[in-house]
TrEMBL record:
It is a peripheral membrane protein. GO terms for molecular function: phosphatidylinositol-4-phosphate binding. PANTHER family: GOLGI PHOSPHOPROTEIN 3 HOMOLOG SAURON, TRANS-GOLGI PROTEIN GMX33. GO terms for biological process: Golgi organization; Golgi to plasma membrane protein transport; Golgi vesicle budding; retrograde vesicle-mediated transport, Golgi to endoplasmic reticulum. This is Golgi phosphoprotein 3. The keyword Membrane applies. The keyword Ribonucleoprotein does not apply. GO terms for cellular component: cytosol; Golgi cisterna; Golgi membrane; trans-Golgi network. It is found in: Golgi apparatus membrane. Coiled coil: none annotated. Pfam families: GPP34. Belongs to the GOLPH3/VPS74 family. Keywords: Golgi apparatus, Lipid-binding, Membrane.
Length: 280
């Protein structure tokens, strides 16, 4: 049996397995719930990224992961974009560069999520800035002392608290010799497995060379988990040939012209603006 045939068989098996899983909820604000969807715990992009990165038993992120801070702020902006709360100002006749277009508020109705609503309030109450600047403000990585109050504080802990409230994690205090740290071991491993299955399913079975045909929320999850250095958790147990196929598809997406993708009809502009900002 050739490697290609093995990959095809594996992808078919993934489809069969995922057909037994509850459906995902792609548009939290606008799509009506089915009975199956209402039974599945809803997770934001930030919660899914953190869940992927958490060690199952230890309940903390790798100390060497220095990408997740900005990655989570990017998730917040994309989540607000997917919920139609924010977008980019029009590019105009001169087709301004993606990185120079400012974020504008489309709808200031609260989302019900404290982190999202805090970020939305900051964007609404301050002068318009581009995506990269807002990621710097929200992460506290700015040289402007007057903008430091815009930093979202204790983001990981607040996201972890949401996971605890949704009964996916619990809270424990662990001693690390020099200091004590609150950790969040998983108690519902099924939720993490569902996130992993969704990533594998979209990359192996529902992918397209035209990424505009890929579900926006799932595409955002894949690209942002890659930047946040937690994607490997979803791919590490794949057979070598299937792993190589998945990595190639993701790498191809990361090589796309983000400006061109953002200007396509039906595109999620905030996703491409965030990806351009994070990779600049």
């Amino acid at each position: 049996m050739t490697e290609t045939e093995e990959a095809v068989i594996y992808r078919r098996n993934v489809v069969k397995e995922n057909n037994n899983l509850p459906g995902t909820i792609d548009n939290i604000d606008n799509e009506p719930e089915s009975e199956a969807e209402s039974k599945e715990v809803r997770l934001t992009l930030m919660e899914e990224i953190l869940l992927l990165g958490l060690k199952d038993r230890e309940g903390y992120l790798s100390f060497w992961n220095d990408s997740v801070c900005c990655g989570l702020r990017g998730c917040i902006l994309v989540e607000l974009g997917l919920r139609n709360r924010i977008g980019l100002e029009p590019s105009g006749m001169r087709r301004r560069n993606l990185s120079s277009r400012c974020i504008v508020v489309k709808k200031s109705v609260p989302t019900g999520d404290a982190l999202l609503d805090e970020a939305l309030k900051h964007i609404r109450d301050n002068k318009p800035e581009n995506t990269k600047t807002w990621i710097e403000y929200l992460s506290g990585e700015t040289w402007n002392p007057f903008k430091l109050p815009l930093q979202l504080r204790n983001v990981r802990e607040r996201i972890a608290k949401n996971l605890v409230e949704k009964r996916i994690c619990t809270t424990e205090k662990q001693n690390f010799i020099l200091f004590d740290m609150m950790t969040h071991p998983l108690v519902d491993l099924g939720s993490k497995k569902r996130v992993i299955s969704r990533i594998q399913d979209v990359v192996l079975n529902k992918w397209s060379t035209d990424v505009q045909k890929v579900d926006k929320r799932l595409l955002s999850l894949v690209l942002l988990s890659h930047y946040s250095d937690v994607l490997e958790c979803a791919l590490q147990h794949l057979p070598d040939n299937v792993y190589d196929l998945a990595k190639k598809r993701i790498d191809d997406a990361l090589q796309l012209d983000f400006f061109a993708e953002a200007n396509k009809e039906g595109s999620c502009e905030m996703l491409w603006a965030v990806m351009a900002a994070l990779n600049s």
